[in-house]
Structures are given as structure tokens and as C-alpha cells.
Amino acid sequence: MVASAASPALALDYEAKPVKWVIESPVRLIGGLAGGIVTGAVSEPIDDGYHWSIKGTKHVAGKFGDENGTGQLAAGVPIGGSVGMVLGTAHGVPYGFLHGFKKGWEKPFSRWSYITMEDK
Question: CA 23 to CA 94: how far, in whole Å?
Fold first, then answer.
């Protein structure tokens, strides 16, 4: 009776999981760091800087009266665009590093660890 109750626990392969994790972890770590460095230093700061500058320009243009007006957009670029670009770039560095590291750990050296398009 004890043997039949313990047989499912005996059937589990406890040995293979830690060994597989130990073998895969250096590759995953290097893949995560590579993805984090590329995404955090290049890809995401450029992407966030661009998108936040557009949002900042449109926000300031909306405060001047018309979000799509030519004069309002021209006035919004130096104020909202530059602030949006600086803040977006500052936001993109840590976010990009964390995103690249997570995706690089899950799938080392995959294209998704170097870009952030699926999050948008």
C-alpha cells in the first residue's frame, strides 16, 4: 500500500531538472546580458525617445489650442518634443535592459531579446 502511494513521487525525474538548469544557465545569462545591453543602450532609448517626443509635442500643441495645427506643432516641438525625448530616453534605458534581459533569458540570442516591438 505504501509503495503504490509513493510510486508517483518515485517516477519524477529529480535529477535531470537541476542538471539541465546548471548547463543552460551560463548560456541564458550571456544571452540575457547581451539582449539587455543592446536593448537598454540602443534600441529602447531610441524608440522611447522618438515616441515620447511625439507625445510631448502633441501635448504642448493641444495646450496651445489645436493638437494637429501647424503653428501649434511648431511651437510644441522645442518645448514638448525636447523634454519628451530626454524623458523617453531616460525611461528607455532601464526598461530596455530589463526587457532584453528577460527575453534573452527565456530565448537566448533570439531577435525578440534585441527589440521591443511586441510590447507596443
Answer: 28
